[in-house]
Design brief:
single chain, alpha+beta, seven-stranded mixed sheet, five-stranded mixed sheet, 19 helices
Length: 455
């Protein structure tokens, strides 16, 4: 009995046209990463479970895809009474949740082979046991850039410029790089008297866009934060004004919050550094409500949103000074960002911003007329490829209608007709498939014509 083909929920197949569009996004991001001095690395799809757990907060840990151990583990596992030991006997590996924590592990393992500050980028898939929805998948690509080994806030300003440059090149015109600082969040907790519930406060604030202010207050109270403290936090994050007005307001509110003051100092330095660079499209608001619930952030945090369609964040990142310390390498500050390529794809598709990309890179299809033109056809194919023109010859001698239909379906812009008459005359017919026009050329002229616009 045949099996009905299917794939797991939250995963996707990509047809050629979609793959080429995705490559267009990746190539744009990669070019900007390299322009700013970042070099590529890759890490395994799976990591030891101990590497990943405890790095993403309580909610993030629940979304880690664990990998069941192979072999006769159950025979050994049933003798283990300790639940934690039992869990690790059954499962001690997991698919990576993001690229940042594996990068921290990578840096510690390869520290003697790297020049610091080390600037890397990575474009690879990650997996999260999340509920699939529009723009959110269980398997998706992240495009990360990170710099470790320096506490310079120049990196934060450059990352904002990188977001601006990539998204502007992709055609977006109305987007924001929202920025705050984890120390500012600590300042909220200090000013509201709930320092002992800092993580609880951040987790609740991070849900503000989804559940609203009153439910955030209720959630904070449910996590042990007093009603007065919860309402004070909401009062602080609810202040509106320019970046300068927000900083001035919090300076007063943080009179007894030294950590919060330090966060404001760092934000001011980022904004000052940013004035030396050209930011084309991005708005860069100091967002008091930005929490980003990942436990490893310690300084600057940022999130990118587009205002052109309704969509969640399409990028984000922050500073994580203590992350490599989790793997035994202390005193190595780091900061990084990520582009949400899959969400960016949805945005570009809905806004019609993709350039014309067919289902193939092939520029010309040579029509196959059979044995009498075989030699001339193969010589032309070789000459085109030698000149760098992506070309293919139809493999069989099917009817012309079928061969032209093949070119149409694949989105090949030109066909080259080399029949017996063309071989005898030495003049080949180059047909533009979209317009239907065709002209006769000698082979070297065909090559020259198709090379136009080639990089």
């Amino acid at each position: 009995m045949s099996q009905k083909p299917s794939i797991p929920k939250g995963t996707r197949d990509f047809l050629p046209e979609v793959s080429l569009r995705r490559a267009y996004i990746f190539d744009t991001i990669r070019t900007v990463f390299e322009k700013y001095g970042y070099a590529p690395i890759e890490t395994p799809s799976m990591e030891n479970l101990s590497v990943l757990t405890g790095k993403y907060g309580e909610e993030g840990d629940r979304l880690i895809f664990k990998i069941l151990n192979n072999g006769d583990f159950l025979k050994k596992a049933k003798h283990l009474g300790d639940p934690q030991k039992l869990a690790y006997e059954i499962c001690d590996r997991a698919l990576r949740y993001d690229l940042t924590v594996p990068f921290a592990r990578f840096v510690v393992m390869h520290q003697h082979e790297l020049a610091f500050p080390f600037k890397r980028y990575q474009i690879q898939p990650v997996w999260r046991a999340d509920r699939p929805q529009r723009g959110r998948y269980r398997e998706f690509f992240q495009c990360d850039a990170d710099a470790v080994g320096s506490d310079s806030l120049l990196f934060e300003a450059e990352f904002i410029c990188m977001y601006d440059e990539v998204l502007s090149q992709l055609g977006l015109k109305d987007f924001s790089v929202r920025i705050s600082n984890r120390k500012v969040l600590s300042g909220f907790a200090e000013a509201a008297g709930c320092q002992d519930h800092f993580t609880d406060m951040c987790v609740a604030i991070d849900k503000l866009d989804k559940i609203g202010a009153e439910k955030v207050i209720s959630e904070m109270e449910g996590r042990g934060i007093s009603p007065d403290s919860a309402r004070k936090v909401m009062e602080l994050i609810g202040f509106e004004g320019t970046n300068e007005e927000k900083i001035a307001f919090l300076r007063k509110e943080f009179a007894t919050a030294p950590t919060g003051q330090q966060g404001l100092d760092e934000l001011e330095e980022v904004f000052e550094t940013l004035t030396y660079f050209s930011v084309k499209q991005a708005k860069v608001p100091f967002d008091l409500q930005l929490a980003r619930g990942l436990d490893y952030y310690t300084g600057t945090i940022m999130e990118v949103v587009t205002h052109e369609i309704q969509m969640g964040s399409i990028g984000g990142g922050g500073r994580y000074d203590d992350l490599t310390g989790l793997f035994g390498l202390k005193g190595l500050p780091g900061v990084g960002i990520s582009f949400g390529a899959d969400r960016i794809y949805v945005v570009l598709e809905e806004l019609g911003l993709f350039p014309e990309i067919g289902g193939t890179k092939t520029k010309v299809l040579l029509i196959n007329f059979g044995e009498g033109t075989h030699e001339a056809s193969l010589k032309a194919l070789a000459a085109l490829r030698e000149a760098g023109v992506p070309a293919e010859r139809y493999p069989g001698t099917d009817k012309l209608k079928k061969q032209f239909g093949y070119a149409d379906k694949k989105g090949i812009p030109y066909t080259l007709i080399i029949g017996t008459e063309e071989v005898n005359n030495g003049v080949y017919q180059l047909k533009h498939m979209k317009t239907g026009t065709q002209h006769g050329y000698a082979l070297h002229e065909v090559v020259a014509e198709l090379m136009e616009g080639q990089s």
